[in-house]
Write a structure and sequence with these properties.
heterodimer; A: 183 residues; alpha/beta; TIM Barrel; 6 helices; 21% helix; B: 541 residues; alpha+beta; Sulfite Reductase Hemoprotein, domain 2; five-stranded antiparallel sheet
């Protein structure tokens, strides 16, 4: 059974630091565990101070009771994984990430709104995967609060993309009211 | 907002031209700005919300056609304008010019919510329950830059119908919003979902009756949220909502939407009376003059005697108006020899002058690819007809065989298997005797150059589909389609024909119709009565 220190050196689990949060580029302290990983691959405990992990949904759910109050273990959803199983569990999860395997796969936007609007999730909601400059405005308005920009893309430019538009037309998961209620 | 979008796209185009942005990444971005890469050049589709625009906008388009294109522009079946020859590097400039007259190309392509369409006679049609345009505008506002629905499984089209006769083809849209008044006279909507043309034509299914107007937007949002999550993304030909609705069954789909809707039913997107009133005020009727309808009609009757041609035009291209002494005029963009729906820069400027002079400076594009002046005084009709005639915009063939719906086809489009414009022209030439056409009565002829069905061949009374057989162009004929309330998908007649045979085949089809027809019966009604068999028998005899 490989332990965490070994895993973190494998390329699959490298830590890109193209992370945007609170309108700035910050270090990424969260490590994404591969989708096909199972309990035998990863050692973790709820008070593990050695690193912060984002587990794939299936693995997280396996240990949900133990993990739902963890401060150092989050979960990530792939684009074909609805957040439904997290409805009653997500309240204290520190980070929920949603993967965009290709940016044209827009399912994650609805997942984000479901988590924010229906489940009242108030933790850090992170867009991961094929996350690019041109979609930043959409991510933000659907309730994402951090963005792990694709490794080979320019995070500085993406940061500027958050402010591409100054007005909104409809209600989103942010503060905006629909334009038809405005004069 | 528009200028911000132009700036964003200018940056994206520069990144693409500089090689920083890959083709596959640029593709959805340019599509969301209405830019396709076509057979010979890019194609830019300019949005015309519910088909309505003003003369300043038309003059700007004339300028753009002359300056950045080959001097003409195309009216599409979804009431938009298309530029067929812009240069990619000019597109940001074109968008900037459009923005100066509040026009844009946003969401005219790509897998997002497209332009909402409705009756071209909205606000003036005599069979109207209520003006649908305020509702279209509310849908437009909600769907513009919608952050959640910018990258759907596939494109998404909404139509609103608020008339007895359906002129919006709402049963062939992803969502058809059917406006009704309930017994108390209050506005309600029937929501139809899962209609569409393309490779798999489907008539939509009613999933919600009597929706209160205040819930229109939240309900649409619920439909889209279900579709965005459950629509197929593995195969673009199975990604439209019609496939999802079929797979789940309309009832299960409706239940799932309802479940989603209950959670958002009263949220911020709920419409208020204030909001609706404010939007309705944008569409307040112009200051009509008080006119005496019967004296206007007497004058028209004597003008008819002066000119037979004027009389024909009056019968075929002019429609009745809600207001006494006014009429709706169709400018016909289908003279023989011109690609259906094309209009030149000079014609556009002349049409803008006509609209300023005779129709309050406003114009509409129609689903049938013509242009409408909606508020013309009957006393002006004769003068307007003379001007239209000079401009070659008065062909009195509206709704007849020589007024086809036709896609740009293999002459322009990268997707097409076959040309469609020359087929339209060959048929127009074969059937150029107006008296014969009038005798045949109204016939919808719809021509598509490929399975994507931009010419709506599935819903033509007579449909023609271009197909490719080992590199040669062939044409499949279908009969009995209809896009109104009696929606029907056409049946294929049989094996396809070479391009030179098509006019003769159409002639044979018409011969069968004439033989079986009851007096005054329309083609579609005869077809429904006798079925496809006699047509098949005679054409393939």
């Amino acid at each position: 059974m490989p332990d965490l220190s070994e895993l973190s050196q494998s390329s699959e689990l490298s830590k890109p630091s193209n992370l945007i949060k609170d309108n700035q580029i910050v270090d990424n302290d969260w490590q994404i565990i591969a989708k096909d990983a199972d309990s035998s691959d990863v050692k973790f405990s709820i008070d593990d101070a050695s690193g912060q992990l984002l587990l794939p949904l299936a693995l997280w759910l396996e240990h949900a009771e133990q993990l739902k109050n963890s401060k150092t273990i989050g979960v990530w959803l792939d684009s074909d994984e609805s957040p439904e199983p997290l409805e009653t569990l997500c309240e204290s999860i520190p980070v929920i990430a949603v993967n965009f395997p290709v940016f044209a796969d827009g399912r994650g936007y609805s997942y984000a709104r479901t988590l924010r609007d229906y489940y009242n999730y108030s933790g850090d909601l992170r867009a991961i995967g094929d996350v690019l400059h041109d979609q930043m405005y959409f991510y933000k308005r659907c309730g994402f609060s951090s963005y792990l920009i694709r490794e080979d893309a320019n995070a500085e430019k993406a940061l500027a993309g958050l402010n591409d538009f100054s007005a909104d037309y409809q209600a989103g998961s942010d503060e905006s009211k629909p334009i038809f209620h405005k004069r | 907002m528009l200028n911000e979008r132009v700036a964003q796209f200018r940056g994206q185009t520069e990144r693409f031209l500089a090689g920083e942005l890959g083709e596959s990444e640029f593709l959805p971005l340019r599509l969301q700005n209405g830019l396709y890469i076509q057979r010979l050049a890019p194609m830019l589709r300019v949005a015309v919300p519910y088909g309505l625009y003003n003369t300043a906008q038309l003059r700007k388009l004339a300028h753009i056609a002359r300056h950045y294109d080959k001097g003409y522009i195309h009216v599409s079946t979804r009431q938009n304008f298309q530029l067929n020859w812009p240069r990619l590097e000019d597109v940001p400039d074109i968008l900037e010019e459009l923005a100066t007259v509040d026009m844009h190309a946003i969401q005219t392509s790509g897998n997002c919510i497209r332009n909402t369409t409705t009756d071209q006679y909205a606000g003036v049609a005599i069979d109207e329950i209520e003006d649908p345009r305020p509702w279209c505008e509310l849908i437009r506002q909600w769907s513009t830059f919608h952050p959640e629905f910018a990258l759907l499984p596939r494109k998404f089209k909404v139509a609103v119908c608020a008339t007895e006769e359906d002129r919006a083809a709402f049963k062939f849209h992803d969502i058809g919003v059917e406006l009704i008044h309930n017994d108390e006279g209050h506005t309600r909507f029937h929501i139809h979902v899962g209609g569409g043309l393309g490779r798999t034509p489907v008539i939509s299914q009613l999933i919600k009756r009597d929706l209160h107007w205040q819930h229109l937007i939240t309900y649409l949002e619920a439909v889209l949220r279900v579709y965005n999550q459950l629509g197929r993304r593995d195969n673009k030909y199975k990604a439209r909502i019609k496939i999802l609705v079929k797979a789940m069954g309309a009832e299960a789909f409706a239940a799932r939407v309802d479940q989603e809707w209950q959670k958002i039913k009263d949220d911020d997107n709920t419409l208020s009376e204030d909001a609706v009133n404010r939007v309705q005020a944008f569409f307040a009727p112009p200051n009509y003059e008080v006119l005496d309808d019967s004296s206007c009609n007497r004058e028209l009757a004597s003008q008819r005697l002066e000119s037979n041609d004027f009389g024909r035009w009056l019968d075929k291209n002019v429609q009745p108006h809600q207001k006494d002494g006014y009429a709706i005029v169709n400018l016909a963009l289908k003279p023989t020899g011109i690609a259906p729906g094309d209009i030149t820069d000079l014609q556009m400027e002349a049409v803008a002058d006509l609209a300023d002079e005779y129709s309050g400076g406003l114009l509409r594009n129609t689903h049938q690819q013509n242009i409408v002046l909606a508020d013309v005084k009957k006393t002006d009709l004769f003068a307007l007809w003379q001007r239209c005639d000079e401009l070659k915009l008065a062909t009195p063939n509206l709704g007849y065989l020589s007024d086809p719906i036709c896609c740009p086809g293999g002459d322009y489009c990268a997707l097409a298997n076959a040309k469609s414009i020359p087929i339209a022209e060959a048929i127009q030439r074969q059937f150029d005797d107006l008296d014969y056409l009038y005798d045949l009565g109204p016939i919808d002829l719809n021509i598509s150059g490929c399975m994507n069905a931009c010419g709506h061949h599935h819903v033509g009374h007579i449909g023609i589909l271009g197909v490719d057989k080992k590199g040669r162009e062939f044409y499949q004929i279908s009969l009995g389609g209809n896009m109104g309330r009696e929606a029907a998908i056409a049946k294929i007649l049989g094996p396809s024909f070479g391009p030179e045979e098509v006019p003769t085949v159409i002639e044979k089809v018409l011969d069968v119709f004439v033989k079986h027809r009851h007096p005054e019966e329309q083609f579609i009604d005869t077809y429904r009565r006798v079925g496809i068999a006699p047509f098949k028998e005679y054409v393939y005899a």
